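Re: beginner question about structure tokens

> Can someone show what the tokenized structure looks like for a real chain? I only ever see the sequence side.

Sure, here's an example I had lying around. Input first:
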Amino acid sequence: MSVLYTVVSAVGEGQGEDEAFTPDGGGKESGGVDIKTRLVIRCEEIGGKAGGESYTYELLTEAAAEYFADITGYTLNEQEYFGLMDTVAARELAFAVKSLATRAMSRKMLIERMLRKGYDETVCEYAADRMEKLRALDDRDYAALFARDRAERGWGERRIRSELLFRGIAREYADEALEELDSPEMKIREFIRLKRRGELDRKEIQRLTGGLMRRGFDYSEIRGVINEIIREDGGELSPDAEDLG
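And the corresponding structure tokens:
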């Protein structure tokens, strides 16, 4: 049984042959009920009962739009179609808006949160699309915000990039966000200034290197900065100091 047939059957229950539909009047029944509104309500009921397995919200909306065109002779334009979809998926869209108002998220994070809530995958993708269209969801902006925040917490570029990719951010956006940050050498120097305990002997170098690598800084960058500091202190690099591992 097709989705269109199911929607038509559900909406058609109780309609009489004398009920009139007018394309320019929004489609009114003889009793004054807006057919389009009734159609949306029935789609919501069917969608809720189906649990998203047999009837996706996208198909329900397509079926509703087709049926509306059949009974009125009027084809919904793009804005009206999305309005219908928004109404069918009103609960899920409200959840998406609330989620984004609570905390910044990437597209992947929002969809995963909605899926954990039990929403249909199709409508989760649709909700993310709508949020992007409304500029409430933007992976490029999120990447920049996240990178700045984590850099201020002392994270290295490697760790920031890894976390951005894990959160579904495109590599292009991750690279752009990292390019806007201060050089990692400055962060490494600041970390060493705050954490250093005396001379940079082998043991101290290993301790500082371990702490910096756990924060996501690259070994080569750490080694370069420590070697520079040793030279600035007037010391010479011993074989032990050169081997930071």
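Each token stands for a local structural state, so reading them left to right follows the chain. The radius of gyration is 29 Å.
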